[in-house]
Amino acid sequence: MKIFQSKTIIIDSGGGDADAAYHIAKIIHKNFKGQITYIVPRFAKSAATLLVCGGNCIMMGPTSELGPLDPQIQQESGEYISAKSVQSTLELIKRYIKEDLELATVIASRINPLVLGQYESTLKIAKEYQKELLFLRMFEKNPKNNKIVSNIVKKFAEGYTHHGRVIDYEEASGSLLRIDFCDSDDWAPIWKLYMSHTQIIYLMKVMRILERARELQID
Asked: Which is more confidently placed, 202 or 167?
């Protein structure tokens, strides 16, 4: 297998599947021998935050945004809900048990018991993934770093109540992640590249819509 040298990877994602993010991070780690730097021009939320924890360093600028470790739970309908939404509902029930037992009972009756099991297991595996990825490159696996990594995982998994919570450069640095900050001048070419990329993606979507419209007209 050919092993490539150091790599800079641009990530732009609102999140997704934690298993997929973990798998992608492991593949990248195995195929690049030198340093891996993840650049976040705008978003690396939820599962994408998990992914960038697999690098040596995360490069952020004024527009960069990470997010809480908040895996999505699939429902019977096929829709996804945030694990933190389940957590908030459980906390609401606990509060209403003391204040309004009848309301607490009504809310509890609407929760699928399977969702509660999924909530616990999904959050647990996401925390395990983040811990393992942080030890791949960002932190050496030794007793000295065990507490640091555990604190990072706890912060991202339990320290925020909102799925869309903004974790900017200062917040991410405060969590002890290894962040390389670019000021506005150095960030300008990265932002220009990002905007060019998003415009190309937008045009491709428009072209697909137009192509589909033509196919419907022919039919």
From this structure: 167
Q: For the chain, first and last CA: distance in Å?
A: 48
172 and 149 part of one domain:
yes
Angle, CA of 184, 190 and 195, to the nearest 5°: 110
Provide the domain count of the chain: 2
State which residues form the domain around 92: 78-115
Q: How many residues does the chain have?
A: 219
Which residues, including other chains, have CB under 8 Å from residue 195's CB and lie 6 or more apart? none
Q: For residue 172, is it within any domain?
A: yes
Per-residue confidence band for 39, with pLDDT thresholds at 50, 70 and 90: very high
Whether the model pTM is above 0.85: no
